[in-house]
Backbone:
């Protein structure tokens, strides 16, 4: 019995270091990337940002184009309403007011659709960039021997020797030569 217990204890001692070493975590080899610089500096990103800026400027121009005549018409209706001195508006003024409300609602709906399209375009651009960055991170980490990659904005300080921003930027420029700046149309639910 003693021999059996002694053999079991020796066997357990021989197995324990193996089990403990299997659970050891490798030392962290950290790399840092400045994602803000990557997404602002990549070639396709610059082109996409210029396209988005153009879309936003076109929206502002359209908004001004719609607002000017509506403002003038609204002021004229307001003046006509004040001129009534509390009397009920005639049918012609009521029709003008109703037409004005319809135009105003149509303008608001148009602006909302265009704003939503710009938001969708922006999200689509970010998705395309994000889809390419994941594999690039892994490639850069493998090439540089890192097992942790941090965004530069989340670190208090780091050495230039751990900065892989240029590697990630070069990888993104290579993997993403162009970015589509118009999101695909949304699928409408099919009714029965």
Residues:
């Amino acid at each position: 019995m003693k021999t059996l217990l002694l053999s079991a204890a020796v066997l357990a001692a021989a197995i324990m270091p193996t089990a403990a070493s299997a659970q050891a975590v490798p030392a962290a080899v950290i790399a840092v990337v400045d994602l803000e610089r990557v997404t602002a500096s990549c070639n396709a990103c610059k082109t996409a940002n210029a396209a988005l800026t153009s879309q936003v400027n076109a929206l502002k121009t359209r908004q001004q184009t719609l607002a000017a005549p509506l403002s003038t018409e609204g002021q004229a209706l307001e003046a006509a309403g004040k001129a009534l001195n509390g009397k009920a508006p005639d049918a012609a003024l009521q029709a003008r007011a109703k037409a004005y409300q319809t135009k105003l609602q149509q303008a608001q709906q148009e602006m909302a659709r265009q704003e939503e399209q710009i938001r969708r375009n922006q999200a689509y651009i970010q998705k395309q960039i994000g889809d390419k960055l994941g594999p690039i991170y892994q490639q850069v980490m493998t090439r540089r021997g890192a097992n942790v990659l941090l965004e530069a904005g989340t670190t208090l300080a780091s050495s230039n020797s751990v900065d892989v921003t240029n590697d990630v930027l070069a990888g993104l420029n290579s993997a993403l030569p162009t970015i589509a700046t118009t999101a695909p149309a949304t699928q409408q639910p099919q009714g029965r």
Observations:
- The helical segments are 2-22, 35-41, 43-83, 91-144, 165-175.
- Residues 28-175 form one domain.
